[in-house]
């Protein structure tokens, strides 16, 4: 029994405590109890660490700046890739967009939420084919765009891809320029150079490069002009070999993705190089997105095929006449007048024509020659400054532009029955009704708008974004649907959605 308790029972005084011990005892320590001894473990000081990544370590100002710049570069690169994907899907791509879109199939840093099921079936030209149809000013512009991607990239294979394209761009630009005396040394033996370098692999080219550099740095008497030009040619072949390796990986990834959707088409792609033959001509919308003072002869050549009498105004190459389009003088006059109005800053030319579903031969086809109406359509593009975009973007680094409306101008000057105006209707596939959405998160539904007229014009359809139209009478957002002087005009913008808390 406790001595103090026994003393209380016996009527004794409690044993005197050691006052000196109590005076010097730590007040925070546990109280002494002979029946239940409690020991408090000693506090261990935290280990000292000089590791830069240790938790709780404050970053210096330079390290914070480096992290901020790295995050900013990653964000800018991601947005550039996203804009390139959108332009390729909407058939208004620039040469740089085709190059960036091809790389997305093997890009480990791409955002999977930006993928589209139909991307794998979009025909894209081979990277070398993109460079073939460009002149010197266009190559210079493309070289600047490639250098921007190469500067921002951090993935090793992606950097090899852009570095190889830079070398091919510079070589192509050099060949288009008038040849100077320094290029004559290797020109005389160009066939021998091609015979020596073309069959070699990348490893063999790298070994040969070391030998040539050693020879140029040696003191032995050699023809430095020849060996210098040969080294330049070798670097070009080396870039082609690297690009060929990346393109093989792109083809393999596309074939693998297509095998689940269309095995027959995947087998055909596997037997080919996986790319389209030539690059499409640059669209007027793409040219307007990044304006340059240099003209685009590729577009002019296409436009020249449109009419033998006079070339159309610049920026209308995608409207070159083909097939059974309307060639009448009345149509041409209406078309030229609409083209002369130009395209404003927030507009782009729209040509997303689609096959009309369930089309049949019209009953009047034996009496009148069916022909497609000509058109000059515009799509209204702009920024949506919703809460998310206000948080993640600013006016110096804006979000990707989105479709905000359309302006259809379709020409029917030669209608047989002018009392019946052409009409239009909306077609939603797969049984989807108005207001319903089958699109995944972050995507928008699309639908077909079909324009219907009488003889001698066939129906024509376009794929548009399926959102609610704004029928208000506001001047800046005015809805217009009219048929006057042979022109069907349908202008509309989408309703703005305001989110409330």
Topology:
Elements: H1 3-10, H2 19-24, H3 61-89, H4 95-103, H5 127-132, H6 136-152, H7 156-176, H8 184-187, H9 190-197, H10 202-217, H11 224-259, H12 263-271, H13 284-289, H14 297-304, H15 329-340, E1 347-350, E2 353-354, E3 377-382, H16 387-392, E4 402-411, E5 423-427, E6 446-452, E7 460-465, E8 469-470, E9 480-484, E10 487-494
Antiparallel strand pairs: 1-3, 2-7, 3-4, 4-10, 5-6, 6-7, 8-10, 9-10
Characterization of this structure:
With 501 residues, the protein is α+β, with helices and mostly antiparallel strands. The protein folds into two domains: 62-271, no CATH class; 321-494, no CATH class. It has helices at 3-10, 19-24, 61-89, 95-103, 127-132, 136-152, 156-176, 184-187, 190-197, 202-217, 224-259, 263-271, 284-289, 297-304, 329-340, 387-392; strands spanning 347-350, 353-354, 377-382, 402-411, 423-427, 446-452, 460-465, 469-470, 480-484, 487-494. Strands 1, 3, 4, 8, 9 and 10 form a six-stranded antiparallel beta sheet that branches. A four-stranded antiparallel beta sheet has the order 2-7-6-5, with no helix packed on it. The chain is flat, with a radius of gyration of 36 Å. The two termini are 71 Å apart. Mean pLDDT is 75; it is low at 282-323.
Outline:
This protein is an alpha+beta fold. It is 40% helix and 11% strand. Strands 1, 3, 4, 8, 9 and 10 form a six-stranded antiparallel beta sheet that branches. A four-stranded antiparallel beta sheet has the order 2-7-6-5, with no helix packed on it.
């Amino acid at each position: 029994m406790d001595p103090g308790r026994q003393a209380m029972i016996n009527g004794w005084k409690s044993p005197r405590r050691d006052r000196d011990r109590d005076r010097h005892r730590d007040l925070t320590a546990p109280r002494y109890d002979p029946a239940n001894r409690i020991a408090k473990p000693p506090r261990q000081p935290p280990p000292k660490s000089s590791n830069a990544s240790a938790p709780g370590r404050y970053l210096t100002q330079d390290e914070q700046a480096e992290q901020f710049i790295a995050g900013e570069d990653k964000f800018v690169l991601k947005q550039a890739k996203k804009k390139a994907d959108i332009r390729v899907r909407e058939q208004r791509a620039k040469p740089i967009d085709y190059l960036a879109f091809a790389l997305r199939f093997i890009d480990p840093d791409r955002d999977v939420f930006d993928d589209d099921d139909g991307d794998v079936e979009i025909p894209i030209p081979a990277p070398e084919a993109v460079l073939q149809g460009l002149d010197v000013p266009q190559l210079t512009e493309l070289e600047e765009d490639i250098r921007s991607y190469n500067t921002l990239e951090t993935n090793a294979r992606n950097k090899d891809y852009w570095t190889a394209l830079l070398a091919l761009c510079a070589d192509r630009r050099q060949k288009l320029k008038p040849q100077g005396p320094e290029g004559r040394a290797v020109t005389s033996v160009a066939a021998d150079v091609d015979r020596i370098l073309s069959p070699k692999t990348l490893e063999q080219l790298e070994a040969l490069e070391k030998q040539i550099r050693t020879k140029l740095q040696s003191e032995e008497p050699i023809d430095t002009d020849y060996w210098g030009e040969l080294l330049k040619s070798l670097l070009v072949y080396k870039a082609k070999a690297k690009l060929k390796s990346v393109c093989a990986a792109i083809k393999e990834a596309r074939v693998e993705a297509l095998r689940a959707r269309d095995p027959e088409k995947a087998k055909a792609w596997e037997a080919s190089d996986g790319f389209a033959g030539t690059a499409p001509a640059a669209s007027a919308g793409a040219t307007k997105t990044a304006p340059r003072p240099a003209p685009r002869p590729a577009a002019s050549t296409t436009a020249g095929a449109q009419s033998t009498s006079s070339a159309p105004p610049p920026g209308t190459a995608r409207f070159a006449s083909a097939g059974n389009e309307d060639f009448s003088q009345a149509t041409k006059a209406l078309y030229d007048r609409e083209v002369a109005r130009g395209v404003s800053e927030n507009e782009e030319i729209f040509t997303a024509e689609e096959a009309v579903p369930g089309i049949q031969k019209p009953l009047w086809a034996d009496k009148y020659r069916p022909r497609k109406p000509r058109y000059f359509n515009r799509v209204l593009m702009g920024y949506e400054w919703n809460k998310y975009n206000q948080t993640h973007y600013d006016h110096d680094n804006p979000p990707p532009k989105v479709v905000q409306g359309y302006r259809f101008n379709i020409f029917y000057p030669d209608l047989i029955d002018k009392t019946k105006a052409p009409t239009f209707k909306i077609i939603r596939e797969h049984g989807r009704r108005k207001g319903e959405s089958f699109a995944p998160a972050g995507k928008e539904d699309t639908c077909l708008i079909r324009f219907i007229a009488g003889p001698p014009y066939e129906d024509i359809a376009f794929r548009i974004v399926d959102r609610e139209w704004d029928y208000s009478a506001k001047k800046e957002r005015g809805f217009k649907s009219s048929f006057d002087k042979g022109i069907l005009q349908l202008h509309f913008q989408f309703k703005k959605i305001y989110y409330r808390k």
